[in-house]
Specification:
Strand content: under 5%
Mean pLDDT: 90
Low-confidence stretches: none
Largest sheet: none
Helix content: 55-70%
Order of helices and strands: HHHHHHHH
Length: 175
């Protein structure tokens, strides 16, 4: 044995540091869920309560916005579909954002809610913010990327999904 040289790798702080890192890793998606959930609830409510937005035409209307981005979008046919009934499309987006936001915030059907959020963000990126130059000035692409970890991982902690999963596991133990 060599004197003055430690052969073990254990230090008094390593277990605490590892515990902290493990905890931080487990809770890493919670701030993302809070941000996306609150933001999408706000976006949905903002659209539903904006009388100018939910109109076929006029300043600030969904119809004028869609007509304004039609020629610069990646998929003009998608905009044309929305323009067949802009108000219905506006309500669909607003209610979709609300459902996605609530599901994400509560952690209820989180992967499905996140997939819905990703699809909304994708459709807005391909239409409304497609012409942003440089591309990173558009906000819908970062939202699309932000939804990806929640699509993959769901909400394993502090969620209705986790509570239901725990309840099912406990019920299975008693059978």
């Amino acid at each position: 044995m060599t004197h003055g040289m430690r052969t073990d790798t254990h230090s008094p702080h390593s277990d605490g540091d590892r515990d902290w890192r493990d905890t931080a890793t487990r809770y890493a998606l919670v701030p993302l869920r809070l941000f996306l959930g609150i933001t999408f609830i706000y976006a949905g409510l903002d659209k539903l309560t904006d009388s100018a937005f939910m109109k076929d035409s006029g300043a600030g209307s969904i119809g004028d916005m869609m007509r304004g981005v039609r020629d610069s979008s990646a998929i003009p046919a998608l905009v044309d579909t929305a323009l067949e009934s802009p108000v219905a499309f506006g309500y669909a987006i607003a209610l979709g954002e609300l459902a996605v936001g609530i599901g994400t915030l509560l952690g209820l059907l989180t992967r499905l809610a996140a997939l819905g959020g990703a699809l909304i963000s994708l459709s807005l990126w391909l239409t409304v913010s497609w012409a942003a130059d440089p591309y990173y000035y558009g906000n819908d692409l970062p939202y699309l990327m932000a939804w990806t970890p929640l699509v993959l991982a769901g909400a394993p902690l502090l969620s209705v999904d986790a509570a239901l999963r725990g309840r099912r596991q406990r019920a299975g133990e008693y059978r």
